[in-house]
Amino acid sequence: MAYFTLNQASLTHNYRFLQKLFNKKEMSWAPVLKLLCGNEKYIDFVLSLGKEQVCDARIANLKTIKKLKPEVETIYIKPPAKRSIKNIVKYADVSFNTEFTTIKWLSEEAGKQNKVHRVIIMIELGDLREGIMGDHLMDFYEKIFELPNIKVVGIGTNLNCLSGVMPSKDKLIQLCLYEQLIEARFNQKIEGVSGGSSVMVPLLLKGIVPQGINHFRVGETLFFGTDLFENNTIEGMKDDVFTLHSEIIEITEKPSVPYGELDKNPSGEMFEVDENKFTEIQKRAILDIGLLDISKVDFLKPQDPSLNFVGASSDMLVIDITKANRTYKIGDIISFRTDYMGALRVMNSEYIEKRLI
Fold it and tell me: What is the pLDDT averaged over residues 150-168?
């Protein structure tokens, strides 16, 4: 059976790296835990590292977090759906919002639950996912401040989440200006200006984030140490938090190209035959994972760089071990690093065991 491991030492190292960075900048941050897909072992370990505030985009995951640590502050980081309002108020202390109608529903439900629900208003700065257009912001705020059982605790933005628009000093200054305009017009203090996600960490390290930005949500960089500007690992952080392990179930020498009449495979792919390879023999290993578990092989990187992907079906992954650096045998484990999207797919698979190491 394939299994996925979370390295506690590496994750602790990354957590402390970020905590030290944000403390130095006198800014706050919250881990984004949606990657963990509600896995109690993994969530419990992250919560043990000491954060008093965490983010997620799934209500079921927030429910798990509250079960494990009721006192932790939970932030729902996407605009709520109408049919989720009751549970948003129940399990999320704070939610991101962009629609007055939705906030009105939250206000009504918060009254029923005898709560004050806190909201962060998301502002569009160019990536064109969620967010209010800036020229509508003042009218929007004026209506929200009149709602009972609702407290506006901040404004925020998302960049590099849909269209690939990267954050810049100018965009962050624009966000700070919106905060100042709101405070001046309504005589209301905006506690938090949430500048973005993991993509912001390189800007913090370079010291080019305006002082008015005081809050961040960090997922990918916490778990992978990723510099999303340079697409590499931030110096001083770890990239080995997660590893996928799969067992070899067959090793056979076979022709390197298929033979017989060809058509599309179940994934809709058409194999192109290189006639120059008709006499070539390949040593192939079949692993006990497939597309049902990982969706794509593109997100996997073998820890042994001498291995090459051949292809995958729903239940099996074929690897070329002809030029492998070591001798493999049936029952051996081949391990892979994943990127963020690869880990998300693996975490969402019920067929892969999740282990803490």
Answer: 93
Could you identify the residue written with the tokens 């390295």? 7
pLDDT in tens, 136-152: 999 999 999 889 999 99
CATH 2.60.120 fits 242-356, yes or no: no
- Judge whether residue 295 has pLDDT over 90: no
Domain with CATH 2.40.37 in the chain: 242-356
Question: How large a percentage of the chain has pLDDT more than 70?
Answer: 94
Kindly tell me if the per-residue pLDDT of 182 is higher than 90: yes
pTM beyond cutoff 0.90: yes
In Å, what is the CA distance from 41 to each residue of 66, 75, 168, 274? 14, 20, 37, 47
* pLDDT-based confidence at residue 270 (cuts at 50, 70, 90): low
**Catalytic member of 20, 24, 25, 34:** 34
> Which residues make Cβ contacts (< 8 Å) with residue 137, sequence separation at least 6?
121, 123, 178, 181, 182
CA distances from 342 to 45, 220, 293 (A): 21, 12, 10
Whole-number Å distance between alpha carbons of 155 and 134: 12
d(CA 324, CA 307): 6
Is 112 assigned a catalytic role?
A: no
What does the alpha-carbon distance between residue 122 and residue 103 come to, in Å, rounded to a whole number?
12
If you write DSSP's letter for every residue of 204-248 in order, what string do you get?
HHHT-S-TT--EEEESHHHHH-EETTTTEEPTT--S-SEEEEEEE
* Token pair 């070591």 in the structure block, residue: 326
| The CATH classification of domain 8-230, taken from the options 3.20.20.10, 3.30.9.10, 3.40.50.720, 3.40.190.120 | 3.20.20.10
Q: Average pLDDT in the 122-136 region?
A: 94
Measured distance CA(354)–CA(293) in Å, rounded: 13
